[in-house]
Each structure stands twice: as C-alpha cells, then as structure tokens.
Amino acid sequence: MKDPITISVTGAAGQIGYALLFRIASGAVFGPDQPVNLRLIEIEPALPALDGVVMELDDCAFPLLREVVPTADLAVGFSGANWALLVGSVPRKAGMERGDLLGINGKIFTGQGQAIAANAASDVRTLVVGNPCNTNALIAMANADGVPNDRFFAMTRLDENRAKSQLATKAGVHHSQVSNLCIWGNHSATQYPDFTNAKIDGKPVTEVITDRAWLEGEFIPTVQQRGAAIIKARGASSAASAANAAIDTVVSLCNPTAEGDWHSVGVCSDGSYGIAEGIIASMPIRTKADGSWEVVQGVPVDDFSRGKIDASVAELLEEREAVKDLIPG
Ligand code: NAI
Asked: Lactate/malate dehydrogenase C-terminal domain location, by residue (predicted)?
C-alpha cells in the first residue's frame, strides 16, 4: 500500500463538499490503492456542521481513509497538502451578479494562497472551484510566494461536461462519443464552449450537427446559462455535478490525456492563442506521461471563435483590474 497523500478541502461543510469528500475518501479520485488524509477547512460558524460531516465520514469506515482533521486554522488545514481544493466561498444567489462576488470572495483567497505557500507539501497543486474561480485562482497564485504558477487551476470542467452532454443529446449519441471540447476563457456567462473543434465519434461536430443556428444560438447560451438554470430549478447552485467535475479535473491532471484529445481547465496563460499572459484562463490542456501538463497548440481559431475568446478574456482582464489591490507586485 502506498503512503497516504493529503487533500485539503475548503468549504468542506458546504453542499459541494458534501458531494465531494465521500468520493475522495472512497478512492474514486486517486485510485483504489492510494490512502488519503483529509484536512477539512471551514469558517468558525460552520465547524459544528463540519463535525457532522466528519461523523459521517467515520461511519463509512472507508478502507482508504486515514486521518481526518476538521479546522478553521489555515496553517493546520493546508499542512502537508498535496492537493488543495478551494471550494469554500460565498455562492452566487439568485439575482446576484458575478461582479458582486469578486469583492466578497477575493479576500478569502489572499490568505489561502499565503497559507498554501507556507504549509503545503512541495508538490502541492491547487484547484479553485469557489467562484469567481478564475480570478480567485489568480489571487491565490499571486499570494503563494514560491509555489510555481503552473500548480494553480480554476475549474471549467463542469462547463465542458455540460457542453458534451448538450451536443450528445442533440446528435442522439452517448456523451462519451464527444471529444475535443474546449471551454475557453472565464467560468462565467462569457465562456466559449468551442463547438468548431469538438468531435463526435472523431468527426467534426459541425459535420454531425449541421444546424449552425442551433450551435451558435442555442448550444452556446444553454451551456453559458446552465448554472443559472440550475439555481432557478433547484433553488441552489449545482453541487453534485460540480463535485463530479472537480473529481474529473483532478483525475485528468493526474493521468495522461488520451492521444489527440484535451481537457478544459483554467491555467495561468503563457500568451498562447493571444490570451493575455498571467491571467487564469481556460484553454485546451493535455496531461503528459510524466504528470506535467501543457497547452495544446495549433487548435484552429476561426473568426467566430476569436470574437468569443476575446470577449471572455476581456472580462477576465476586467476582473483582474477589480481585484488589483489583492495582487502583490
Ligand atoms: P455552500 O454555500 O453550500 O458552501 C460553501 C462553504 O464554504 C460553506 O460551508 C461556507 O461556510 C464555506 N466557506 C465560506 N468562506 C470560507 C472560508 N473563508 N474558508 C473556508 N470555508 C469557507 O456553497 P457550494 O454550493 O458548496 O459552492 C461553493 C462554491 O463553488 C461557490 O462559490 C459556487 O459558486 C462555486 N461553484 C463553482 C462551480 C464551477 O464550475 N467552478 C460550479 C458550482 C459552484
């Protein structure tokens, strides 16, 4: 049996936490021979609820679960973390704009970035789920002195999964037949689910779904607005599907990507595809055999795609400007 790895999860008493922790502890993320320690971070008022979650983890008697540490202390919470899953933040409520969230949540991520730098394992990787996740990841990265920028990720996998599901339904195929689906830009209503490069059974989506009006006028807004549609229907934001996407993201970053395919995740831009350097933007990513990742190069960007990507990048630049006081140097 391998040595345990340590996973820190913020917002552990929240609804995504509740859908996420049990799957990590069961082995669904890191495999059936990888023991895990969980460090569960919450704000003080949520610690009683977190105790209940810990009791339920105990009651599962998971063979792979070793230590569980609930805490409101960031130094304790990120101690030795190999993965930091930053889920905790104030979720968007009906009628609330993402811009409102920036100010409320941005400050959380300065302290968490610093605490990760000071306490986590030297190989720590950080996935930000809490919204606005791209800019929160940027703030955490900028405050995590000494941790390389390529260890910070923002979750756009839920958008990728949503997009694959919509395309599969329209084409009458199973969603596993949809590949090469890239979400570009921000995890927000400006995100661009790129149907121009996506494939169904290896064929361009545009050859399988010839209804361009649907692709441009229905598919894109449906994916962009899916989060809002779920809030409207459920009275709460997506949780099980978000936890599932966090798992998919970590699994995709820990295992080599299938030849010719890619996955979507927000990473620190190196300027590829004309995306402003230094912002956290979603783009096509491949995980290599050695466990490192790279931006897939040479994905065609036509005029339609260019306009959509540029609009989402412009929003990310606005977000960065709005939180510039939280970004040192
Ligand atoms: P929730 O409100 O059920 O849980 C959030 C938890 O975070 C609460 O228990 C709260 O006490 C905790 N929290 C707040 N501030 C904290 C801090 N400073 N440190 C540690 N914990 C803190 O919310 P839910 O549904 O679990 O969503 C969490 C976040 O994930 C939200 O920001 C939501 O918008 C985001 N989200 C992101 C998605 C994505 O695709 N990137 C998809 C769905 C949700």
From this structure: 156-325
Strands 65-71 and 36-41: parallel
DSSP state of 185: B
Contact assessment for residue 29 and residue 247, using Cβ atoms and an 8 Å cutoff: yes
Residue 117, C-beta contacts closer than 8 angstroms, at least 6 positions apart: 143, 144, 145, 146, 147
The CA distance from 227 to 162, in Å, is 10
Does ligand 1 lie within 6 Å of residue 323's CB atom? Answer: no
Cα(239) to centroid(ligand 1), Å:
9
pTM for this model (two decimals): 0.97
Told to judge if 175 belongs to the known catalytic residues of this protein, a careful annotator would answer no
pLDDT tens digits for range 68-80: 999 999 999 999 9
Q: Which two tokens stand for residue 149?
A: 């920028």
Nearest 10 degrees: Cα torsion 216, 221, 222, 228 = 180
Does the Cβ of 89 fall within 6 Å of ligand 1? yes
Q: Where are the beta strands (DSSP E) in the chain?
A: 5-10, 36-41, 65-71, 83-86, 125-128, 152-154, 178-179, 182-184, 192-194, 199-200, 203-204, 263-268, 280-287, 293-295
CA of 233 to the centre of ligand 1 (A): 19
Residues 135 and 319: their CA atoms lie apart, in Å, by 7
217 CB-near residues (< 8 Å, 6+ apart) = none
Q: Is 162 annotated as a binding residue?
A: yes
Count, in order, helices (H) and strands (E) of the chain.
12, 14
The finding on whether 70 has its CB within 6 A of some atom of ligand 1 is: no
- Residue 311, Cβ neighbours under 10 Å: how many? 15
306 annotated ligand binder: no
Cα 97 to ligand 1 centre (Å): 16
Question: For the chain, how many residues are written?
Answer: 329
pLDDT at 102: 84
Q: Is 105 a known ligand-binding residue?
A: yes
pLDDT of 289: 97
